[in-house]
Amino acid sequence: MAIIVENEEIKVSKVENDYGADDIQVLEGLEAVRKRPGMYIGSTGPRGLHHLVYEIVDNSIDEALAGYCSKIDVAIEPGEIIRVRDNGRGIPVGINEKTGVPAVTLVFTVLHAGGKFGGGGYKVSGGLHGVGASVVNALSEWVEVKVFDGEDIYFQRYERGKIVCDLKKIGKSSERGTEVRFKADAKIFKETTVYEYEVLEKRLREQAFLNAGVHIELRDERQEEAVQKNFCYEGGISSFVEFINKKKHVDPIHPDVIYFAAKNPEDTVTVEVAMQYNDSYNELMLSFANNIHTVDGGTHEEGFKRALTRVMNDYARRFNKLKENDKNLSGEDVREGLTAVISVKVKEAQFEGQTKAKLGNTEVRTMVDKLLSEKLSVFLEENPQVARVIFDKALASAKAREAARKARENVRRKSALEGAQLPGKLSDCQSKDSSETEIFIVEGDSAGGSAKGGRDRRIQAILPLWGKMLNVEKARLDRVYGNDKLTPVITALGTGIGEEFNMEKLRYGKVIIMADADVDGQHIRTLLLTFFFRFMRPLIEEGHIYIAQPPLYRITKGKEHKYAYSDIERDRILASMEGKTEIQRYKGLGEMDEDQLWETTMNPETRLMLKVNLNDAEAADETFSILMGDKVEPRREFIEANAKFVQNLDV
Ligand code: TSJ
Known about the structure:
With about 650 residues, this protein is an alpha+beta fold. About 40% of the residues are buried. The site of ligand TSJ has 18 residues, from helix 3, strand 5 and strand 12.
């Protein structure tokens, strides 16, 4: 057998025994790795650097999956040295017959060595590229390995992939396991060799969820007082689902996570599914194959979705939840508010696509489909109360979608007949140049009037929103068309929404939400921000959305007056003013007259505004569920964390 790597022919000698050191597939050549590191670890940036750690830890995870290891300790030592230790069997130290070299040495010095020593388990984990210890060795300034075989401690050191000393006994110990320490080579990782604790934490926690019962410890020893976290989840991916729901601030609508698992008779594929519905309207599905996050999905996700839709519809028909003339529930309907984790372990996983983050094994699709078909229908029959809340949710989703579709058609028909007409309540500005224009979306009755009177009518438009927001409006943004609060916003901005969104048609460069600091104001901000996030996201991404900041206090002394936008500022102003002062606390925009509103909140020269800024998609997604939820605290935190001052008054 010959494998071509970068036009170099590499000899392979395959040894076919069952056990121990002889059973390693031998490949030669580590130089290639140092020449083209990106080929083996994806990048030489921070991602690649952290990838080194995963490559080493994956070996211990494999040992745990084989049933021989229960604890994995990972540490970042001072000097950006990584130490990984497990309590497994220890990498075999016996001499490999073909090469006359200890197996452990081959693991570190021969590309693609390692893997199958025989034994019960099979290698399932392995990073994106699954290349192993030799690649880490090639890309490290040095590596040291210690093997504890229950009697002796063996030791070997390598520098930039080369053996520095023969494997030798350095002491006695009754412990078993493997310890690897390494320092990434700064000549390879030119950008940085500094590890981020949070990055390792996220990955190791995830691995602990995916491999139930394995103890994983992470220590940061770089500072005087070490930081340490321990991860061990007996509940596995069910705990993962609970963790995600907590993190997303959503409330489950049935008490327990639903969990199913199966293996094929040959024991070459295992599949696990954990799922729970919550009170949000978002779908959150994470899938893994051999402990690798398959960002682009694949056959395991396809099997899950297909079976879920089918089982739910079958059930709905059988129990008359859907009448004869009703349409089937769609995939989106049955996944609304669902958090699910799918994890499969496949002996020979095929990863597809540009980033190799999509599972291709077709037998997995069938297995996940079968698992869900059999177990979920039984579960629903045995848990009628849970079945009820899930179906009610899916039916509500189907109704909302149908209503949205009808409303959308109506709006289209209307605008086709009448041409896109600006909303009647809009007080437009004179300028048509969006680089200078602004629209204030104003809540409330009297505030709209003051804003209209106080504005700079050349560049500032006012759109008042009337009436109290209904709870359903807050919750169900799918019904944007026909929503009498949102359609005026859509027509005034001019861009269209969703797939039809067109930034070039934006009629105002700044879209400013102006609402009271009270609960109703909070609601309108929530509705609008969520709406923009869902249907006009580029507006947020490109920094067009602002939140006006009206003052909280007006402080008067004789003819002099000042405004305070926070309690701290109020106290500072009070301290600076001598004599008798009077404080007025504004409860709403409506308490200000035209001039005051202009001076404090609308005048581009002096006002304070918050720019809404969602930087990464994950944070945005979290944000969205927070905004959708009805818990005030996380929402307030969001607003504070994501808004930044664009114009600072003398605060
Ligand atoms: F490979 C490595 F250096 F990256 C590494 C391997 C690093 C660390 C931290 C741990 C390990 C590792 C390897 N832990 N446990 C094992 N187990 C084996 O290599 C092993 C031991 C015995 C047998 C057997 O069949 O008797 C098979 C294997 C794979």
